[in-house]
């Protein structure tokens, strides 16, 4: 009997390894096909399944470089920063520093003064699920002013004026993607912890996970990828000043996978916080949101995901807690259709 148990255990181990190997081969094949169709787009993909990591990459750091992109190459994760900000908010809730349904009034910096009819109306959860009703910055105008660094024209005064001059929450309770909402969340975190957002990222993410390629304000390193617009024009990494909590972070496939492993681990600090962010805070028609994460339900699958696009790069992160997998797709071109298409192909043919 003992020999039989050993045989079955060995067979199970071999079978599990074979399945994992098959998954990684199929992902690699999908990436190769997409790179052949888009040879000017550098790609780096990280995948974790049952705590085992897999990476694949295509292309060079930039058009002039012969250095190949790998799992440690640095990309902009742009708005994927928002799910990290919401994770910090959830950590603050678990530390009993705030409640997720607290009104924002008492947590805002002193330069903000909500008009009387808006007081005690907006909750922290409203900001994190994009349903606060507050006006947002006009990215189209900002891009026209400075295509390389559009956010450079946004100041603390700009944001305060937007909030203080808001007389009505015209679409409160309705989804409207909001950069200002996540900027305010970051400022709430700064007040709660009495630290800069940059310090919070380092202390709550970079240090505990021992990340080596995750950068905030200073990103002058040799392994950064050059960004490019859809028409092939070179794009600088964005500098995020006061709006940092909405898009600041630069990272690599290896580091994001380390973050995903922490998210999928229910016993880790990040994992416990992620469970709170995965609760539904907005559900209308086919759109369902947690705190910073989109929730996709299909048959018995529940996938949490968030995309990010800077002026010259695109990425998307997704994970399935029940099936214990997570993936990050990083592109050095602003190409939302391509990053979504790659995820769809991998999900439909491999992960579903």
TrEMBL record:
It comes from the Bacteria. Gene3D superfamilies: DD-peptidase/beta-lactamase superfamily (3.40.710.10). Keywords: Hydrolase, Signal. GO terms for molecular function: hydrolase activity. The keyword Signal applies. InterPro entries: AmpC-like, Beta-lactam-related, Beta-lactam/transpept-like. Residues 1-20 form the signal peptide. Residues 40-342 form the Beta-lactamase-related domain. Coiled coil: none annotated. This is Serine hydrolase. The lineage of its organism: Bacteria, Pseudomonadati, Bacteroidota, Flavobacteriia, Flavobacteriales.
């Amino acid at each position: 009997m003992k020999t039989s148990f050993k045989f079955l255990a060995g067979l199970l181990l071999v079978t599990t390894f074979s399945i994992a190997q098959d998954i990684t081969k199929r992902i690699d094949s999908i990436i190769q096909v997409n790179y052949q169709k888009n040879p000017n787009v550098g790609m780096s993909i990280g995948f974790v399944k049952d705590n085992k990591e897999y990476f694949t990459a295509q292309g060079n750091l930039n058009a002039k470089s012969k250095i190949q992109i790998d799992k440690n190459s640095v990309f902009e994760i742009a708005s994927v920063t928002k799910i990290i900000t919401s994770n910090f908010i959830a950590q603050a809730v678990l530390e009993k520093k705030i409640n997720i349904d607290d009104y924002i009034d008492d947590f805002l910096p002193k330069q903000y003064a909500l008009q009387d009819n808006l007081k005690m109306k907006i909750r922290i959860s409203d900001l994190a699920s994009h349903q606060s009703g507050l006006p947002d910055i006009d990215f189209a105008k900002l891009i026209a002013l400075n295509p390389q660094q559009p956010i450079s024209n946004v100041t603390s005064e700009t944001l305060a004026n937007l909030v203080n001059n808001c007389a009505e929450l015209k679409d409160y309770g309705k989804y409207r993607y909001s950069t200002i909402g996540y900027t305010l969340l970051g400022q709430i975190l700064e007040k709660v912890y009495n630290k800069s957002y940059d310090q919070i990222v380092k202390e709550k993410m970079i240090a505990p996970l021992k990340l080596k390629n995750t950068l905030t304000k200073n990103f002058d390193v040799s392994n950064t990828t050059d960004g490019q617009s859809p028409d092939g024009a070179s794009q600088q990494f964005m500098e995020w000043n006061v709006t940092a909590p909405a898009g600041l972070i630069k990272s690599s496939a290896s580091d994001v996978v380390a973050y995903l492993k922490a998210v999928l681990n229910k016993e880790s600090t990040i994992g416990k916080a992620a469970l709170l962010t995965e609760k539904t805070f907005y559900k209308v028609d086919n759109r369902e949101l947690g705190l910073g994460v989109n929730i996709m339900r299909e048959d018995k699958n529940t996938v949490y995901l968030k995309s990010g696009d800077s002026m010259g790069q695109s990425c998307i992160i997704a994970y399935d807690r029940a099936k214990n997998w997570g993936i990050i797709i990083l592109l050095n071109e602003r190409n939302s259709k391509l990053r979504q298409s790659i995820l769809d192909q991998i999900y439909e043919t491999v992960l579903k």
